[in-house]
From TrEMBL:
<keyword id="KW-0418">Kinase</keyword>
<comment type="pathway">
    <text>Carbohydrate acid metabolism; D-gluconate degradation.</text>
</comment>
<dbReference type="GO" id="GO:0046316">
    <property type="term" value="F:gluconokinase activity"/>
</dbReference>
<comment type="similarity">
    <text>Belongs to the gluconokinase GntK/GntV family.</text>
</comment>
<dbReference type="GO" id="GO:0005975">
    <property type="term" value="P:carbohydrate metabolic process"/>
</dbReference>
<dbReference type="InterPro" id="IPR027417">
    <property type="entry name" value="P-loop_NTPase"/>
</dbReference>
<dbReference type="InterPro" id="IPR006001">
    <property type="entry name" value="Therm_gnt_kin"/>
</dbReference>
<keyword id="KW-0808">Transferase</keyword>
<keyword id="KW-0067">ATP-binding</keyword>
<keyword id="KW-0547">Nucleotide-binding</keyword>
<dbReference type="GO" id="GO:0005524">
    <property type="term" value="F:ATP binding"/>
</dbReference>
<protein>
    <recommendedName>
        <fullName>Gluconokinase</fullName>
        <ecNumber>2.7.1.12</ecNumber>
    </recommendedName>
</protein>
<dbReference type="GO" id="GO:0005737">
    <property type="term" value="C:cytoplasm"/>
</dbReference>
Length: 158
């Protein structure tokens, strides 16, 4: 697509990485500043009219709201008022699949700070996207070309 790509894992603070390396799951207090920093990156790219893809485990609805609206999503459950730092338009892609498939992929990953043992905590935290969130769900049981085609089709359809 020619879009700019960011991997959210590259932006975790050292404290978060150390915690995960030790097998300790992150909590909301660990994740919120990280998500706010990611929102700032997305806002900057949006302001320069740069289309962007962010690979991020935005596990909870609140986390996705922070990516869209920044810190204001935490401070209030109210929608933003017109003219007040308008929310970003984001299509969330929920990669969904059985735990055993994901665990197998994590086992093959080398040099990453999150050990496969934390997968259960990720599933425990997960709140799959639902209406009215702007999202698609893509099965990880499909082939990589099928996954990419489904995501690209959704992006191009707006």
């Amino acid at each position: 697509l020619g879009w700019k790509f960011y991997d959210a894992d590259d932006y975790h603070p050292l404290e978060n990485k150390k915690k995960m390396e030790e097998g300790i799951p992150l909590n909301d207090e660990d994740r919120i500043p990280w998500l706010c920093a990611l929102h700032d990156i997305l806002r900057r790219e949006d302001a320069s009219r740069q289309d962007t893809i962010l690979a991020c485990s935005a596990l909870k609805k609140m986390y996705r709201r922070v990516l869209i609206s920044g810190a204001s999503a935490i401070e209030s459950n109210q929608p933003e008022q017109p003219g007040e730092n308008p929310a970003l338009k984001i299509l969330f892609v929920h990669l969904d699949g059985p735990k055993d498939i994901i665990a197998g992929r994590l086992e093959k990953r080398r040099g990453h700070f999150m050990p496969p043992e934390l997968l259960n905590s990720q599933f425990d935290t997960l709140e799959p996207p639902s209406a009215p969130e702007n999202f698609i769900t893509v099965s990880l049981e499909k082939s990589l070309p099928e996954i990419l085609l489904q995501i690209e089709s959704a992006i191009l359809q707006g």
